[in-house]
């Protein structure tokens, strides 16, 4: 229920929380998405960092995969430390960290430096998701939980859209400042600074919260714990890349090694913390959702990373700007799809239908629309209007299904384990994001086109659809208990 303060100052309560967390997703989306278009520009213009690279698309995809490796590995530690030191504390650290790393990415002079800074960006951004979902669950009335998740994560689509729209103009500004060879630096510098400013605004908002949600920051303790995990993951990821390059391992092999490391982390969590967080580790239905998130995040970062290149090649003769503007439709669909999916999931839940079947239906439709996109590209379709329309339609259903899945997982989880659950959910799901850019880039270099990569993406979507069919929503006793509560417990 709304408090008197919320009625007088509409953005002081959970609505204000939604707004600032949405801005956090804008920042997170921008910081990660600009990597793909910027690398496409670097490849096309043969900038010094990519001179002498034999398989540029595979290497460029690997840079993205390593970013998501850092992002994935920090999911569980970020949520677990958020449960201990406060989710909002870790949220502010996450956004500030990613912003600083993005700014520094624009200052590097060697490919290994870009790899290292993109890994650090991913590590910082990886702390956000599990804590963001937890705070929404805690501070949003139960009947608006899925809507809140949808509204907030719409910021990711805004960030993806903003990245596609601003990279080309910022590169033109960069040409005037740094010349053609250094123009790629400007998107990192400008958008990284924007992220840092958003982190400062989030801190100020959290400090303004009163009553049961009064903010007691613990930056020192949280940073100390996060630093331990971050240092280990950074050394491991960059070390694997460095050794792999020296040994001449293929890019897909490096992505595979990182995936094995992520799986080893999952196994370590089961071994060391199995007793403490058993409700989120040994729940059959939650685990099905975790694995179904692998195709979801594969699809998200396949199109977010490579869509400009896919459209550019499919529509022969189009400019970089035209391809980027067409790819924007993938991001724009989320601005409507995320909130709509959240609202539909809440409506379905309130009518007693549950969230599962809405989620299953949307996943199936998204798979069909992605298949149509693949068939159109395979058939030689070149219309920017058709490519943009198919991207928009598939992305609309894709973005809508994500808050449905997140709210369903939250329904199956006790409040004390939300951070750990969302962390495990994204740790496993991000295996798709780790593999997607690199393997898709390898397929592009091997086949000379994007058709095979799009068909792989389509097949994985249908695998996720099959997994979700076996989730048993009706048996979630914890969800039935919390459904009787007017709102979740405070942080």
TrEMBL record:
<dbReference type="InterPro" id="IPR036259">
    <property type="entry name" value="MFS_trans_sf"/>
</dbReference>
<feature type="domain" description="Major facilitator superfamily (MFS) profile">
    <location>
        <begin position="17"/>
        <end position="476"/>
    </location>
</feature>
<keyword id="KW-1133">Transmembrane helix</keyword>
<dbReference type="InterPro" id="IPR011701">
    <property type="entry name" value="MFS"/>
</dbReference>
<feature type="transmembrane region" description="Helical">
    <location>
        <begin position="85"/>
        <end position="104"/>
    </location>
</feature>
<feature type="transmembrane region" description="Helical">
    <location>
        <begin position="226"/>
        <end position="247"/>
    </location>
</feature>
<protein>
    <recommendedName>
        <fullName>Major facilitator superfamily (MFS) profile domain-containing protein</fullName>
    </recommendedName>
</protein>
<dbReference type="GO" id="GO:0005886">
    <property type="term" value="C:plasma membrane"/>
</dbReference>
<feature type="transmembrane region" description="Helical">
    <location>
        <begin position="150"/>
        <end position="171"/>
    </location>
</feature>
<feature type="transmembrane region" description="Helical">
    <location>
        <begin position="384"/>
        <end position="401"/>
    </location>
</feature>
<feature type="transmembrane region" description="Helical">
    <location>
        <begin position="408"/>
        <end position="429"/>
    </location>
</feature>
<dbReference type="Pfam" id="PF07690">
    <property type="entry name" value="MFS_1"/>
</dbReference>
<feature type="transmembrane region" description="Helical">
    <location>
        <begin position="287"/>
        <end position="308"/>
    </location>
</feature>
<feature type="transmembrane region" description="Helical">
    <location>
        <begin position="449"/>
        <end position="471"/>
    </location>
</feature>
<keyword id="KW-0812">Transmembrane</keyword>
<feature type="transmembrane region" description="Helical">
    <location>
        <begin position="17"/>
        <end position="43"/>
    </location>
</feature>
<dbReference type="InterPro" id="IPR050382">
    <property type="entry name" value="MFS_Na/Anion_cotransporter"/>
</dbReference>
<feature type="transmembrane region" description="Helical">
    <location>
        <begin position="55"/>
        <end position="73"/>
    </location>
</feature>
<feature type="transmembrane region" description="Helical">
    <location>
        <begin position="253"/>
        <end position="275"/>
    </location>
</feature>
<feature type="transmembrane region" description="Helical">
    <location>
        <begin position="357"/>
        <end position="378"/>
    </location>
</feature>
<feature type="transmembrane region" description="Helical">
    <location>
        <begin position="110"/>
        <end position="129"/>
    </location>
</feature>
<dbReference type="InterPro" id="IPR020846">
    <property type="entry name" value="MFS_dom"/>
</dbReference>
<keyword id="KW-0472">Membrane</keyword>
<feature type="transmembrane region" description="Helical">
    <location>
        <begin position="183"/>
        <end position="206"/>
    </location>
</feature>
<dbReference type="GO" id="GO:0022857">
    <property type="term" value="F:transmembrane transporter activity"/>
</dbReference>
<feature type="transmembrane region" description="Helical">
    <location>
        <begin position="320"/>
        <end position="345"/>
    </location>
</feature>
């Amino acid at each position: 229920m709304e408090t008197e303060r919320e009625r007088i100052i509409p953005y002081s309560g959970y609505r204000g929380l939604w707004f600032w967390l949405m801005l956090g997703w804008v920042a997170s989306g921008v910081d990660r998405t600009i990597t793909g278009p910027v690398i496409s520009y670097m490849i096309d213009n043969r900038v010094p960092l990519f001179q002498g690279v034999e398989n540029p698309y595979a290497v460029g995809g690997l840079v993205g995969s390593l970013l998501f490796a850092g992002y994935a590995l920090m999911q569980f530690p970020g949520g677990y430390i958020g449960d201990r030191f406060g989710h909002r504390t870790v949220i502010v650290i996450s956004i500030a960290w990613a912003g600083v790393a993005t700014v520094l990415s624009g200052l590097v002079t060697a490919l290994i430096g870009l790899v290292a800074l993109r890994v650090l960006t991913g590590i910082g951004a990886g702390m956000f998701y599990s804590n963001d979902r937890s705070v929404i669950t805690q501070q949003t009335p139960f009947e608006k939980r899925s809507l809140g998740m949808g509204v907030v994560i719409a910021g990711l689509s805004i960030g993806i859209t903003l990245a596609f729209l601003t990279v080309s103009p910022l590169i033109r500004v960069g040409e005037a400042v740094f010349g053609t060879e250094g123009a790629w630096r400007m998107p990192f510098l400008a958008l990284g600074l924007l992220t840092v400013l958003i982190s400062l605004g989030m801190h100020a908002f959290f400090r303004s919260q009163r009553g049961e949600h009064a903010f007691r920051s613990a930056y020192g303790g949280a940073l100390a714990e996060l630093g331990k995990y971050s240092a280990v993951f950074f050394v491991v990821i960059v070390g694997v890349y460095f050794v792999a390059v020296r040994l001449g391992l293929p890019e897909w092999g490096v992505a595979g090694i990182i995936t094995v490391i992520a799986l080893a982390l999952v196994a370590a969590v089961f071994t060391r913390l199995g007793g403490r967080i058993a409700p989120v580790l040994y729940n059959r239905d939650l685990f099905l959702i975790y694995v179904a998130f692998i195709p979801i995040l594969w699809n998200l970062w396949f199109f977010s990373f490579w869509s400009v290149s896919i459209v550019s090649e499919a529509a022969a003769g189009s400019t970089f700007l035209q391809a980027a503007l067409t790819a924007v439709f993938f991001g724009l669909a989320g601005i409507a799809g995320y909130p709509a999916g959240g609202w539909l999931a809440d409506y379905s839940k309130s009518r007693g239908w549950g969230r599962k079947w809405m989620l299953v239906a949307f996943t199936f439709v998204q798979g069909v629309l992605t298949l149509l996109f693949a068939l159109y590209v395979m058939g030689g379709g070149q219309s920017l209007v058709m490519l943009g329309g198919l991207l928009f339609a598939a992305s609309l259903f894709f973005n809508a299904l994500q808050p449905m899945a997140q709210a369903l997982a939250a329904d199956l989880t006790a409040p004390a384990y939300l951070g750990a659950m969302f962390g495990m959910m994204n740790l496993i799901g991000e295996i798709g994001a780790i593999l997607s850019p690199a393997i898709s880039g390898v397929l592009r270099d091997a086949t000379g086109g994007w058709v095979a990569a799009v068909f792989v993406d389509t097949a994985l979507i249908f695998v996720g659809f099959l997994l979700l069919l076996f989730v048993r929503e009706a048996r979630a006793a914890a969800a039935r208990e919390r459904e009787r509560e007017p709102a979740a417990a405070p942080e």
